[in-house]
Amino acid sequence: MCGLGHLFEKQGIATTVVSLIRLHAEKIAPPRCLWVPFALGRPFGPANDAPFQQRVVRAALELLERDDGPVLEDFPDDEPSNSEGETAWSCPVSFARSAEVLTGAAAVRQSLLDEIAAMQPWYEQARQRDGRTTVSCGVEDLESIATVMASMFEDELPASPDADRSLAEAMRPRAEDLKAFMLEAASAQPGNPTSTELNDWFWNETQTGDILQRLRHVCIAQEAADMKTLGFLLVPLARHIAPDVAA
Amino acid sequence: MARLADIDESLRKPLEGLDCPTFEAPAWVTGPKLNQRRVAIISTAALSTRSDKTFAVGEADYRVIPGNTAGDDLVMSHVSPNFDRTGFQQDLNVVFPIDRLRELADEGVIGSVADYHYSLMGSTDPTLLAPAVERLVPLLKKDAVNTLLLAPV
What we know:
Chain A has 9 helices and 3 strands. Chain A has 2 domains: 2-78, no CATH class; 105-239, no CATH class. The model of chain A has no long low-confidence stretch (mean pLDDT 91). Chain A is mainly alpha-helical. By secondary structure, chain B is of the alpha/beta class. Chain B has one domain (33-151). Chain B is built from 4 helices and 7 strands; from the N terminus they run H-E-E-E-E-H-H-E-E-H-E. In chain B, the strands form 2 sheets. In chain B, strands 1, 3, 5, 6 and 7 form a 5-stranded mixed sheet that branches. Chain B has a two-stranded antiparallel sheet with strand order 2-4. Chain B is globular and about 45 Å long. The two termini of chain B are 14 Å apart. The interface between A and B is large, with 90 and 85 residues. Strand 1 (14-19) of chain A pairs parallel with strand 7 of chain B, so a sheet runs across the interface.
């Protein structure tokens, strides 16, 4: 992002950059930069806190009134504490994640469908609350996604479900749709869960999270470079678990 | 909580070791007072409208986001799994602060908000984004944009 500041200024348009990684802002030194001490993915602060977000936007824009640079300013405040609260949220829908590894595509598919069905009412609540959803980046319905996802656990990998892209390219948006569905749904449940709580729940307690962990291992075991890349992109680095633990 | 020290080591190490480009003879563009500026957002969150193509691994092109895009029509297809998406899922302004910009325009803090905004995908070497930037500049100038708010994810 900081590099774009240089590129656009060279083309004659003034810029102000928001940066989440101060070290990179220091090294690249864009003309004007506001560093914000927020979580990666939330450059303008917590959701649904318009006054706080406006302070961030305003602080970035006010750097345009400086006479010379480069300017690297620190936003003075952390995100409000309720965005990463200390209360213990727990999802009221229990999936009783099995200690045994699901074997076979049919079991994986059924497990995904069960979770989708359990979370569907909460997803509808979230969609109504927010007036929007980020699910379905133009792919297909969740039931079909569960079927395609399960087919990855057959003895042989399936053909790509999309005529115009490889299996790896077709699977990534489907996996993202499943994640988004589950996280949006859980966010509507009582207790105002934080981002950390939502992600802990998804990766530690749901079959869908477990299946994505195991799909990661399926992908990185393939010879094709794009499948290995897919495996790298399915699960956050901080959530990687070893093959013999993923279950 | 995005101070490097707070980020899990598995991600912190690559971030610390990232090879950052340097820019010789950096430009410094001046402009009118803030209340006369027309502002567009350039987001590197790989945003697009639902009808547009989503971003693919390694892509260095841009997507157009009309200013009147409905929230439900804006999706994210960034390839990195290593950042929080729950904020954007609940409120697009967490990543794409279009409503905040409009408020600042209404209050007279900035002059106006551009008709069109744009998104690219971060996690891409910025020098590879240079061709996209060159194609974007004429579009921004046609929209009378003189200021960019560059938003990461």
